[in-house]
Amino acid sequence: MITRRTFCASALAVSAVGPAGVAHAEEKRAVCYNCVRDWADWKGQLEALQKTTGIVMPTDNRNSGEALASMIAERTNPVADTVYFGGDFAIRAKEAGVIAPYKSKYWDEVPDGLKDPDGYWTALHTGSICFFVNKDALGKTPIPRSWADLTKPEYSGLIGYYDIPTSALGYVTALAMNSALGGTLENYEPALKYLKELQRNKPLLPRNTSYQRVISGEIPILVEYDSSAYRAKYREKAPIEVVIPAEGTVTVPYVITLVKNAPHADLGKQMIDFTLSDEGQRLWAGAFMRPVREKTMTPEIASRFLPASEYARSKPLNLQSIFAARDRFKTFVEQYQKDMG
């Protein structure tokens, strides 16, 4: 039987020696955790990376929590070279000692609030939590315009939000709910009260990206980043509406890190540089993520976003502040799990 390991070894041997027996460079392969195919158009980003640099990186279905858990388990023998994180998971990874500093060639162009001072992580783009709504799947049910709307009986069975204890997006969703309803990083009572009310509508709780489930109508309303909703609307031509909730929401950076003792650290650094380059940043903007190097966003793409007056209700989150209040969030999650049974 040919095992996966045997096959990979054979493939490398073929790549190292040409048909005439002349050796040439092995294919440049590296690994990025949490680079999910359908999230933020990582598929397109990694295809462009390969075309531009020759580096082959597969997509990966871990979420931020799962990626960090894998890195900790593999700390003595790392598998990944880079990791993409949401929320404060990069700061947790720094504390756990599983990432290494790297200041990309675009370091000076990234705003100070969007990078670790010592170079352990750099934001690639930001996104705002919104309602990703499939209008056709709702039928005659009105499009929800507020967090309060989601608790109404007519939305029973129509709502999804990401698993709060394990997903960075679930984590940020909880922060968005709490902030919009008057909570703080030290007080999660508004979110707890709201989530109890929301349970009456039997929400779905996916752990990983559910982009296609909204497009198909399986989940008519998903609490998601605006980028996914815009991509479905403009690229998939799906019947999507993007809603910034009336009470408010939050805007969060997503970041890239280099793994400590990465097996292909040089390739990892090249990958980080590419994602922050003009081409990489334009790709994020094209996937409706706001690039950290804002000058790379074209007027055409900018015109597809909701007006600035809508985004005025979205508060930027500071990763260091979130991390500093992590113990309080942990207590919130424990109470949430207890309340949800």
List key phrases describing it.
41% helix; two-stranded parallel sheet; 341 residues; disordered N terminus; D-Maltodextrin-Binding Protein, domain 2; alpha/beta; single chain; 16% strand
Would you give an account of this structure?
- The chain is α/β, with parallel strands linked by helices and 341 residues long.
- It has two domains: 26-126 and 252-302, Periplasmic binding protein-like II (D-Maltodextrin-Binding Protein, domain 2), CATH 3.40.190; 127-251 and 313-340, 3-Layer(aba) Sandwich (D-Maltodextrin-Binding Protein, domain 2).
- It contains 16 helices and twelve strands.
- Strands 2, 4, 5, 6, 7, 8, 9, 10, 11 and 12 form a ten-stranded mixed beta sheet that branches.
- Helix 3 runs parallel beside helix 4, helix 7 packs across helix 8 and helix 8 runs parallel beside helix 16 (326-340).
- It is globular, with a radius of gyration of 21 Å.
- The chain starts with a helix and ends with a helix.
- The relative contact order is 0.18.
- Residues 1-25 have low confidence and may be disordered.
What's the number of extended β-strand segments?
12
CATH topology of the largest domain: D-Maltodextrin-Binding Protein, domain 2
End-to-end distance, in Å? Answer: 46 Å
The radius of gyration is: 21 Å
Give the fraction of residues assigned to helices. Answer: 40-55%
Overall domain count: 2
Listing every helix as H and every strand as E from the N terminus to the C terminus, the arrangement reads: HEEHEHEHEEHHEHHHEHEEHHEHHEHH
Strand portion: 15-25%
SS-based class: alpha/beta
If helices are DSSP runs of H or I spanning 4 or more residues, what is the number of helices?
16
CATH homologous superfamily designation of the largest domain: Periplasmic binding protein-like II
